[in-house]
Amino acid sequence: MDQTLHPRPQLQRATWQSLDGQWRFTFDDQGRHELPGDIRDWPLRIQVPFAPESERSGIGDTGFHPVCWYEREFEAPPGEGRVLLHFGAVDYQARVWVNDQLVVEHEGGHTPFTADITRALRPDGPQRVTVQALDDPHDLAKPRGKQDWMLEPHSIWYPRTSGIWQTVWLERVPETYLERLRWTPDLVDWEITMEAYIAGDLSHQMRIGVRLSHGEQILADDNYAVIYGEVVRRIVLADPGIDDYRNELLWSPESPKLIQAEVTLWDGDRLVDRVQSYTALRAVYVQRDRFMLNGRPYYLRLVLDQGYWPDTLMTPPSDEALRRDIELVKAMGFNGVRKHQKIEDPRFLYWADTLGLVVWEEMPSAYRFTSRAVQRLMREWKEVIDRDYSHPCIVVWVPFNESWGVPDLPQTAEHRDAVQAFYHLTKTLDPTRPVIGNDGWESTATDIIGIHDYDRDPSNFHERYGPKIKPEELFDRRRPGGRILTLDGYPHRGQPIMLTEFGGIALSRTETPEAEGIWGYSSTSSVQDFERRYTAYLETVRDIGMFSGFCYTQFTDTFQEANGLLYADRTPKIPIAAIRKATCGSD
């Protein structure tokens, strides 16, 4: 990533530097090395943050490699205070040394971690960082999302991602510093709650200042005493009262208004730390059978987004590529994405916040149900929510998809208990957003019932979900994919119903897509037929009053899964204007 593009958009300091670029690299398939000093030879060079399976990394090795090592030198950033070493994500377990001193260990392939490396630094000269990444390619009891456990990608699973796959960076901070911020808007009382947490030695004179602004308009300029290392305050804004004036500050995909925040830490009259952040005024919730945004029913037009690129896999090739994806989604008439089986780079969420796109965030699945798998999922899911809580673009949390990892929901109480536990845990950690316990079918605890239905004939949707069908008939009789929609004891309670996967048309060059090595839920070799069928799907789904939103499969072709509206290189298969007209029914 560009040095000017901060990897943590909602807690920015000027004093940071990227460690992306060339590192020394080696595989350790037999697990012979325990410490950095054990490695005598570094035969390879890799471009961080691209995974070794990717072409852009310079390695491009998609074989089974359970252990790999990285190393490079760096210069410590000048100045006083502490030096923090940040990793955006390392798949799956990481051990990190600086100058041969172990500074941090972390488990979880989709979440960030940080080490205070101040005491490990040498007084002068170059410093050395070494990383060991362990990622068993056959382990189905860890959160792995769409990463294939077979040597070659098959069906709907894709190449693996091992090791470092998000940015690595250094940050110089004061001895006492602002460690974490969390923002919670409340439209009922027209206020924003700020939570600020301090790390380091505290004095009784410490205060936090917060300045909120929108453009040239100052919304708040306050300061608060730090008590026990934290400040939690509700900042009440001047409520204009009239909706038209209120709407000038509200965030939505159509009008993504952000509130800029400057937060400062003071010790008496001495400025200790300063960070830049942002938040937004917006509310998302469920009211009866509708999804609500800012107090109004909001129809969700989502597209399933796997978040892969041909040469870089799960790592975006550039910040501009992330922005371009969001611009393409919006140009095609969608107002949101369901990020599927991936925790996306924070820069994606920044652009979704900035450009206006709602995001459903979904936990990458494990594929076995064991106590260890549940513990791993829960630990990482909590880290996901903590990382992304303050992004206004995120409107729904999805801990499970299609019963993956809990395959026996109808028969096994432990599987049902797991889904309910994750649902209630998520609601506890974030009571401000709807939660879908298990998207697709076999619903238990959920705020929205998502249905996955890949019927190849969209006219069947009218018979299945049209005005003649009452909800109770739907849940008693319909079994998309052979699965019941709600489990016994968990009837439909009036929640919104959405068609959250459908379509999946593959565009092949011949009449035999299997011979081409591509896969889709249905296929055609005609561009004209592709456009006709997409239009028929969307016209049908938009016409069904039972649905309060939909999610079409999918945004781009992803390796062998060729059912995107765009090719993998983001070239549209049919004109963008035609896609938009079908998606929205206008324009």
Key features?
3 domains; TIM Barrel; Immunoglobulin-like; 10 helices; 32% strand; alpha+beta; 587 residues; Jelly Rolls; single chain
Describe this structure in words.
It is a single chain. By secondary structure, the chain is α+β, with helices and mostly antiparallel strands. It has three domains: 16-173, Sandwich (Jelly Rolls); 177-279, Immunoglobulin-like (Sandwich), CATH 2.60.40; 292-584, TIM Barrel (Alpha-Beta Barrel), CATH 3.20.20.80. 18% of the residues lie in helices and 32% in strands. Strands 28-27-26-25-35-32-31 form a seven-stranded parallel β-sheet, with helices on one face. A six-stranded antiparallel β-sheet has the order 3-2-4-10-7-8, with no helix packed on it. A four-stranded antiparallel β-sheet has the order 1-12-5-9, with no helix packed on it. β18 and β19 form a beta hairpin. α2 (319-331) packs across α3, α4 (371-388) packs parallel to α5 (413-429) and α9 packs parallel to α10 (576-584). The longest helix has 18 residues, at 371-388. The model has no long low-confidence stretch (mean pLDDT 94).
